[in-house]
Design goal:
Layout lengths: L2 H4 L2 H13 L1 E3 H8 L3 H13 L3 E6 L2 E6 L6 H13 L3 H8 L13
Antiparallel strand pairs: 1-3, 2-3
Helix pairs in contact: 3-4
Length: 109
């Protein structure tokens, strides 16, 4: 939907992911969309170079989130909000519902 503005569909997915979950790391985002890790890494680094995102190291993992000092952040978030709300319900369920692992009952199968 926004790939015309963000160059490609993966860039849109990365930004929507960070809009919904507030932060994320490369493998987590790649796994969510079943995209290659190197493509997601390229998009995150591109947004970081443009000051849209900032990253911090937590242990050995680099966490990305929106840069609160980015001058167009409110406008960008408003655009992402509109894009998110216009997604088909099946895409929202597929990509943006919090995943939890099933609990183990402790009983052998």
């Amino acid at each position: 939907m926004l790939e015309a503005l963000f160059v490609n569909k993966l860039a849109e997915k990365v930004l929507l992911y960070l809009y919904v979950y507030k932060s994320g790391y490369i493998r987590e985002i790649a796994y969510c969309f079943l995209e290659p890790v190197n493509g997601v890494q390229r998009q995150l680094k591109r947004f970081e170079r443009g000051s849209v995102l900032v990253s911090t190291l937590r242990g050995k993992v680099r966490i990305f989130e929106f840069n609160p000092g980015y001058p167009f952040l409110p406008e960008l978030k408003a655009l992402l909000d509109k894009a998110y709300k216009s997604l088909p319900e099946k895409d929202i369920e597929r990509y943006f519902m919090k995943r939890t692992k099933p609990r183990r009952s402790g009983k052998p199968l």
